[in-house]
Amino acid sequence: MRDIEPIRAELEKFTQEIEKEHYDNLSGQKEDLNTSAIYGKYNGIFTDETLVEEVKNRRVYQRGPDRMRMNYLYSLILSSYLARTTTELADKISTMETNMEVEVDGKKIPFRYSAVTLANEPDHNKREIIDRARDPVFEAVNPLRLEVMNKDHELAKALGYGNYVEMCRDAGGIDLYGLKKQMQNVLSRTDRLYARYFKLACSNILKLNQSDVRKHDIGFLFRAKGFDSLFSQESMMKALNTTLDGIGLSLGENPNIRLDTEVREKKSPRAFCSPVHVPDQIMLCILPKGGLDDYRALFHEMGHSQHFSNVRAEMPFEFKYLGDNSVTEGFAFLFEHLVADKAWLSETMGMSENDAMDVSQFLNFQTLYMVRRYAAKLLYELELHSGAKDPEKLYAKTLEDALKFKHPEIHYLYDVDSGFYSANYLRAWMFEVQLRTVLADQFGSTWWKEKGCGKYLKEMWSTGQKYTADQHAKGLGYYGIDEYPLIKEMERKLRY
User: Fold this and answer.
1) Is the link from the previous residue into 279 a cis peptide, with omega within 30 of 0?
2) What is the reported pLDDT for 268?
3) What confidence tens digit (pLDDT) does each residue in 444-491 have?
């Protein structure tokens, strides 16, 4: 049995290099994503099927934290083994989506920016024209995405799993079918509530009959231009810094978080966090534009940044970079939710009571939309990876049933998260409500103004992702990750 420690050291370097490569690409500093070259440097690890089997089997003989480390290590080695076989295809897909352009009315715009263009276009018919102009990109990329998926399915069976779903359940440690039941409950319990609010949004914001709404209209719906004057570009960083200072998490006292605010032509228009070297090099990349969605994205990514930048440096590699991503997504949602908090909007943003109420209600509806969307995606992806026939039609029907508008069949692969990452978001939404409830109980409803709360969160963050979201939930006094607090919050905030 080989010594695993040198392999751990190599995998930590690999993870850092991959994070840096993605950061350079998304920040607009490098056009071509070339992860295949990085995988090539570690080829001895990622092409060794016997190593995958050995680490898989060694999990059984570990206990406590050692078992958790081995589980997380296996998940990385397995996913990287799969990725190594498709990395050239994945790089080609990313490079195509970075470099391909969409032509509308004689003007060319980068494909990656076309979603922003759709979100800012007030005319329904023009949005349809822009969306149709994107179809050639999907047509070009879909065969590559299908090839990647088929290879993943073949490898899952070659490794002894019944199918891809079984492999992801084992490697990720998430009961995907148990989560499916929870999400079916969420969809059922919130269906009438969502339908009522969505119908109002179609009429009041989109100025359309619900039957005329299509997926390409949704970006504009949630772009929420009507709130732009309340969320100015000039106030964005001030609001963030005021909040962080209040809770005792000032950026000036945390050199581990490095802000990238430089304007670059091909920089991602949406904020993102890259934990290049945990905990002392956490890149927070932003392109401040202002507007409600920009604030939400910034606060979400700050949640990630605070989490990773406060991990104890001596924590093992697996607990710094790997683990249950429902945890870091939960912390990100905790910060993002502040933008929907009426007290925060009034005190930090200086809004009137009516404006704060309107923004809060709109964002709670958006959260309900997102939860239902990802719940539907999970149901679809479970069927897709179990060999569903006519997946294009299944995708369109499953998403339409949940969200009450038509979806283009051509998005059936573009709208899929690798390795069921949708499950992490769903668990994170449930965990975040549980965590926020405990913070409010211990520090008051304005917990974000209490430095004691910052210390409490730092203690949680210090262990990185050693513990799963379920373990954190139990530590907070719950039986585990539970959908009912989330359902009840949506009902309470949207019914009145």
Assistant:
1) yes
2) 79
3) 999 999 999 999 999 999 999 999 999 999 999 999 999 999 999 999
On whether the CB atoms of residues 256 and 231 are closer than 8 A, the answer is: no
Q: Which of 129, 154, 173 is the last residue of a domain?
A: 173
- With a cut of 70, which residues of the chain have pLDDT below it? 496
For 102, the 3-state DSSP assignment is: strand
Beta-sheet pairing, 107-110 with 101-104: antiparallel
Q: Which ranges in 255-414 belong to alpha helices (H)?
A: 292-309, 317-321, 325-336, 342-347, 353-384, 391-403
In angstroms, the CA 320 to CA 312 distance is 8
Q: Say if residue 151 is in the same domain as residue 118.
A: yes
Q: Say how far apart CA 339 and CA 299 lie, in whole Å.
A: 8
How far does CA 163 lie from the centroid of its chain?
25
Asked whether residue 41 falls in the same domain as residue 67, the answer is yes
Q: Based on the domain organization, do 139 and 242 belong to the same domain? A: no
> Each residue of 436-452: pLDDT tens digit?
999 999 999 999 999 99
- For 327-342, the pLDDT digits (tens) are 999 999 999 999 999 9
Cα–Cα distance for residue pair 205/199, rounded to 1 Å = 10
Q: Given 133, 149, 173, which residue is the final one in a domain? A: 173
Same domain, 302 and 251: yes
Same domain, yes or no: 145 and 193: no
**Secondary structure class of 261 (helix, strand, coil):** coil
Structure tokens at 66: 């050692």
Domain count, the chain: 2
pTM listed for this prediction: 0.93
Query: Tens digit of pLDDT for each residue in 288-325?
Result: 778 898 899 999 999 999 999 999 999 999 999 999 99
CA–CA separation, 113 and 331 (whole Å) = 28
Tokens of 29: 């500093």
The residue type at 475 = G
State how far Cα 68 lies from the chain centre. Answer: 23
Residue (of 432, 415, 174) closest to 300 by Cα position: 432
Quick one: pLDDT at residue 62?
Answer: 85
Peptide bond into 110 cis (omega under 30): no
Residue 5 pLDDT: 93
Q: Which two tokens stand for residue 16?
A: 């850092």
156 and 257 assigned to the same domain = no
Q: How far apart are the first and last CA of the chain?
A: 62
Range of the domain at 201: 180-494
Per DSSP bridges, beta strands 101-104 and 281-285 are: unpaired
Angle formed by the axes of helices 325-336 and 292-309, nearest 10°: 130
Nearest Cα to Cα of residue 55 among 33, 81, 37: 81
Which amino acid would we find at residue 160? G
274 within 8 A of 23, measured Cβ to Cβ: yes
pLDDT at 33 (0 to 100): 81
Q: For residue 350, what is the domain's CATH number?
A: 1.10.1370.30
